[in-house]
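**Backbone description:**
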Amino acid sequence: MLKPLKHQQFNHEQQPNSDYHEHELIDVQFTNTNLTESYFNDSQLTDVSFEGTDVSNTDFTGATFDQVSFKDALLTNTNFHLAEFHHVSFVGATLTNTKFNQAVFRQCTFLNDQGESVDLSSCDFTEADFAFEDMSHIHFGQAKLQNLNGEGTQFTHANLAGANLKNADLLGANLVGADLTDADLTGAFTKNAVFTKENASEAKPTKPTPKKSIKGFIFTMLFIIVIALLIWEFVK
């Protein structure tokens, strides 16, 4: 059973090595707080602020986030493995050696982030919005990016090996130097997207829309004719 923590403010405090694992946090403020090397694993966080907070080396494994802000937070070596994010902002956050592998993201915002060696492998970004954001050098290997809004996004030297980019909007995206080995671009819109010769050939070719079955078409037409004849006999 989760331990409740509600309607609390810990702004501008020193709380390194704190233990909040298996907690239910609701309306809690940690703005500009030192939470380095703390534990939030397997917790549920709703309406929580980590704005400007240092959560470096902190463990959020398996945590669930809803309406949470990491704006301008320091997330160096932070672990979000298997976490689930809903309406979470990472605007201006420093993401260095941050691990998000196998996390799920829904309606989250990454903008003006700084960092390197970010692990987003095998994450689920279905219908995410990365338009005009800088995702260079990020590890998206095996990630689910179908229906992505990637218009104008910078994916330079990103690892997209094995990524699912089905029906993604990559209008004007920059994929120079990106690893697209076995990436699936079926149905992706790539007008004005920039590839290098090498990585363009690595991506799986867009598959044509399957043709409708001829037998199915004939059956449908016969069915329509039979119905029409029955109606004609009825109204005569």
In short: Strands lie at 3-9, 23-29, 44-49, 64-69, 84-89, 104-106. The longest helix spans residues 214-235. The longest strand covers residues 3-9.
